[in-house]
Amino acid sequence: MSSEQNEKKLVEDQNTPCGCGVPAAPQQPNQEGCTNAVSQQVCVEAVVTITPTVTPGTPMVACVGLPSVGTTCADLGFTPSTTVPGSCTTSFAQVLCVTMPLTFNADVVATPGGVGCGPAFNAPNCPVV
Question: Which DSSP category does 77 fall into?
Fold first, then answer.
């Protein structure tokens, strides 16, 4: 190859992205911009209603002492029932610990609009408060 041919090839190679003899396409401006992860705190609430249930098991009945002959329940110090047929109602209290999973989530629709904002952070995750 002559020096003139070498010089022409060098100029041709400098105008191509890979040196393969095809001219490079003009660079287009970046239409996609840049992407960074940011975060913002948002507060959501859950209203939880707990309705208790009480299911009695099979009662166990045992006699206390021997039957009293010729006496009434009132004579033995018991308050007579006012219901017919007679029954006794007593309240018993039991403290319960109710553990339940709660899933907090949000549907996200990206539309412009007003919003009540919390603190924003230039980081991918909000700090725990």
Answer: T
State the Cα–Cα distance between residues 127 and 39, nearest whole angstrom: 10
Helix or strand or coil: residue 5? helix
C-alpha 23/C-alpha 12 separation (Å) is 8
Using CA atoms, how far residue 43 sits from 8, 28, 40, 101, 105, in Å, is: 68, 42, 10, 18, 11
pLDDT, residue 34, reads 83
Mean pLDDT of 110-125: 66
d(CA 40, CA 121): 6
CA distance linking residue 46 with residue 102, whole number of Å: 8
Contacts of 92 (CB under 8 A, 6+ apart): none
Residue 111's pLDDT band (cuts 50, 70, 90):
low
